[in-house]
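Bumping with the actual sequence this time:
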Amino acid sequence: MGQIKVLIVDDQTLMRDGLKTILNYQEDIEVVGTASNGLEALKKLEENAVDVVLMDIRMEGMNGLECTKLIKEKYPNIVVLILTTFNEEEYIKDSLKVKAGGYLLKDMEGDKLVETIKYAYAGNLIMPSSVAAKLSNIFNESTNDEAEDDKENEIHFSRLEKDIIKLMIEGCTNKQIASLLHISYGTVKNYVSQIYEKIGVSERVKAVAALKSMMKF
């Protein structure tokens, strides 16, 4: 494997210089440029072959998330690692949306950063444990929200409707259902019509097929 070519994008000169010093000590990593915002980063990419971008989030002109989105659209093979002080769920979620290859925190040790760059360059998604925990919370909240939505959209049937549905699934006609449940034929027809309306069908065969997949007795 040849040298991994890295572009550092951060609005703090001290951070850029510090990262450059750490990475240039590595024989298999070369810092090919630095930039103070997203616009500068895009210009540097036009001038240099880059494998990995270390990208800050909050920068003037063009922030890291906007720049990452543009980089991945134009240079899909470049790995963009978000490197930030902000361990916030919204940023983590947004970084995944723009296809960042990892979300790192600036308090990580230098040797760990070097190891991480190599690991990301090999095609692995990078998330430290604290970020992964927040990502897990995001996923769980999303799952819970979907469950709540499903619950809100769930079709509710009365006890009598369920009894009628069960007999419909067994193949009983409306007259047979009326006889078995000791209710009038007209009442059965009305309830069957209500059931059709609830599940959005107008034919018995389709209704029975839909009800079979919905109902658990």
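The tokens above came from a reply further down the thread. The first helix runs from residue 13 to 24.
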